[in-house]
Amino acid sequence: MPEPTSEINYSDFKRIERELNNKYHYSNLNCELSVLKNLQNKIRENQGKITIVLIDTIGSQTIIDIISGFTCKIYGVACDIGTTTVALKLIDLENGEILDTVTSLNQQIKCGDDIISRINYAEKEGHLKELNKLIVETINNLIEKIISRSNISYRDIYYGSFSEILQ
């Protein structure tokens, strides 16, 4: 980030917006409020050297994080939720490479071997919450396992995609 000058004395966000528009032609830039709150500190921590994490959707971009310095990794997870098995992949979002895959039995199997059994189970008072809790625990355990194996932090995971596969 270039430092402000007397000629270009825009706000920090406006300077980021100008830089991204000049380099990548981003013209409709948004920013998460949590990022805006820490923007000034992040830019000045490392003499303006920052990494910007953004989601690029059709027609607009949203800054979801700003990291001081240039040495960071940005990961995503892709999760396939099957009736029997749940699979989670760790993906390097800078190059799309799949770095690791972990699998586990779907803990919902305790409530029925198939979808119909689980639907019937969920109709009883409190059982839908139990099914939800079991799948969340399964996914969280897989995330813990994959970050431990890959020696990364939860904070390095910026995106998750979850799909259900009926087996």
Strand order of the largest sheet: 6-5-4-7
Task: Evaluate the radius of gyration.
Answer: 21 Å
Number of domains: 2
Q: Can you count the beta strands?
A: 7
The CATH level-2 architecture of the largest domain is identified as 2-Layer Sandwich
Give average pLDDT, whole number. 90
**Biggest β-sheet description:** 4 strands, mixed
Low-confidence residue ranges: none
Roughly how many Å apart are the termini?
50 Å
> Count of helical segments?
4
CATH C-level category of the largest domain:
Alpha Beta
> Which structural class best describes the helix and strand composition?
alpha/beta
SSE run: HEHEEEEEHHE
Tertiary shape? elongated
Q: Mind telling me the CATH superfamily name of the largest domain?
A: Domain of unknown function (DUF4445)
Tell me what the structure shows.
With 167 residues, this protein is α/β, with parallel strands linked by helices. It folds into two domains: 12-68, OB fold (Dihydrolipoamide Acetyltransferase, E2P) (Beta Barrel), CATH 2.40.50; 75-165, Nucleotidyltransferase, domain 5 (2-Layer Sandwich), CATH 3.30.420.480. 35% of the residues lie in helices and 32% in strands. It has helices at 12-24, 33-45, 115-122, 127-150, and strands spanning 29-31, 50-57, 60-68, 75-82, 85-92, 98-105, 157-165. The strands form two sheets. Strands 6-5-4-7 form a four-stranded mixed sheet, covered by helices on one side. Strands 1-3-2 form a three-stranded mixed sheet. The protein is elongated, with a radius of gyration of 21 Å. It starts with 11 loop residues before the first helix and ends with a strand.
